[in-house]
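Trying the structure run again after the queue cleared.
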Amino acid sequence: MNILVIDTAFPIEIVSVLAGDTAYDKTMYTGLSHATTLFGNIDLALKEANIGMKDLNIIGVGTGPGSFTGIRIAVTTARMFSQILNLPLVGIKTPLIYACSAGASAHTGQNIITAFDAKKGRVFGALYTKSEHELKPVEIIGPGDYMIGELIDKVNLKEKTLLIGDGCGKYYEEIKLKIPDHYFIKEFIPAGKIICELVKNIYLQNPDEHKDLNKVLPYYSRKPDVAIVKKLKNASE
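Done. Tokens:
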């Protein structure tokens, strides 16, 4: 089974092709230049895999939350390929992509926080625990737009916590005070094969669910500024 997965919600551009049992990664830090780099990196990955777009069986895409423009680039591109090639399209929240890859070698029950800087004192993130039997971790707090405290306050302190994303770096001092037993992987790059296997597993659970590309939509999650200000005000009272 040949799979292409892309995600451009953050400065790390995820591009991975799984051809048979081998993954070909072109995932790299590109800043916010996804509009000029994405198609070139997809082409390079396909050439290394020695397959063409017509040889793909599934397309996977990260739907956010994250950069408004970045999310739109990946989702629009994936939907276009899905429509042109008549391929199933699997949409996955971006934090799950990172958590699944980071947690692949973690022990059962370990906490996984993904947090990327969303400005204005907030992060785009989620909280998971490592599943006992599945590649996909268990969701404790779903992907969204949070203050870092909303994530770390729900951590099971009896287990080690894996930290992923520049939001963890930005708020590291606050995190380490509340979560003594942790491990922060700086500049973490997701593993393409794990991401592709995640997409494959989700697809195989219910193939018919992924036939309609119109079901795959950007997940921005960013609240209006007035709502953010109100929440910050209430939290300080």
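The chain has a mean pLDDT of 93. Worth checking whether this holds up in the mutant runs.
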